[in-house]
Design brief:
Protein-S-isoprenylcysteine O-methyltransferase; about 70% helix; about 280 residues; transmembrane; mainly alpha
């Protein structure tokens, strides 16, 4: 039981011992308040357990979204500048996917485990002693609305990515293919033409919210707010991810042009049935 609730229960026990009249009523009150204290403790424990589950699910969502289902791409030789900006940008994107993204997956896994330890430490004083970096005086570790929003965005984004993986099968790659093996028009590709990109955005925004919202270890420990190293690490992380996400949006038109060139009338008929690129009714 957390220290606050133990003190709460002890207070009522002291009250019982100090009252000499109507002992049976006092015993009833004591039992009643102990029952309330236990219910409150269970509620706090359930909240911590739920938050831990959501943190883990968010971490899994991140790994699912940013792990190439058919293996990491090979980085080709850097193209000459004469090839143009689009080719240069795509080469750098593939380089980041192959060289930087594996490291980010490891780092986010560590961040997820650390967040779980932080939640556990907020509920158990012995964990606070063993893992002092996870604890700060009176941390705010409850579930907030923004935390829930971030968790839901992450999970939905991962589900969307998995649906795209299954639809494309072996044809799903993180690099832009010049020759696609087949035009896929079913599943999420019957709603928008580039659904996996929206899934990626969701699995970037959602986990970022979960890790940076008030109540997370990064905020409650002061790692971001009070240290230069923390700010540099977080901003660099978001900058790298942001580059990748922007590149996905910039890919949409060139990718459509490549598929139109390859599949011709088949692509045109699909584009008429599925006019939106990313968001139904918007774009």
């Amino acid at each position: 039981m957390p220290p606050t609730l133990r003190r709460f229960a002890f207070c009522w026990e002291d009250h019982r011992n100090s009252v000499n009249t109507n002992e049976s009523l006092d015993v009833w009150r004591l039992h009643k308040m102990q029952h309330v204290a236990i219910e409150l403790y269970l509620a706090l424990t359930m909240e911590a357990a739920l938050k831990t589950v959501l943190v883990v699910m968010t971490g899994i969502s991140y790994l699912v979204a940013f792990t190439p289902p058919n293996g990491d791409p090979r980085v080709p030789p850097r193209p000459p500048l004469s090839k143009g900006l689009i080719v240069q940008r795509e080469w750098f994107f593939v380089f980041v996917v192959a060289r930087v993204l594996p490291l980010q997956r490891i780092m986010y896994t560590i961040a997820t485990l650390n967040e779980c330890l932080f939640i556990l430490a907020s509920q158990n004083s012995s964990v606070q002693t063993l893992l002092p970096w996870t604890y700060r005086t009176q941390p705010k570790t409850g579930i907030t609305t923004l935390f829930l929003v971030g968790s839901v965005i992450s999970i939905v984004g991962a589900i969307l990515r998995v649906a795209c993986y299954r639809a494309l099968g072996a044809g799903f790659t993180f690099e832009m293919l010049v020759n696609n093996p087949k035009l896929i028009t079913h599943g999420p590709y019957s709603v928008v033409r580039h659904p996996s990109y929206i899934g990626s955005w969701m699995c970037w925004i959602g986990p970022s919210i979960v890790q940076l919202v008030a109540g997370s270890w990064i905020r409650e420990s002061g790692f971001y707010d009070n240290t230069l190293v923390g700010r540099v690490v977080i901003l660099l992380w978001e900058a790298i991810m942001g580059f990748g996400m922007v590149n996905l949006i910039l890919r949409v038109v060139p990718e459509d042009e490549l598929m139109k060139k390859q599949f011709g009338k088949e692509w045109e008929e699909w584009a008429k049935k599925v006019p939106y690129k990313l968001i139904p009714g918007v774009y």
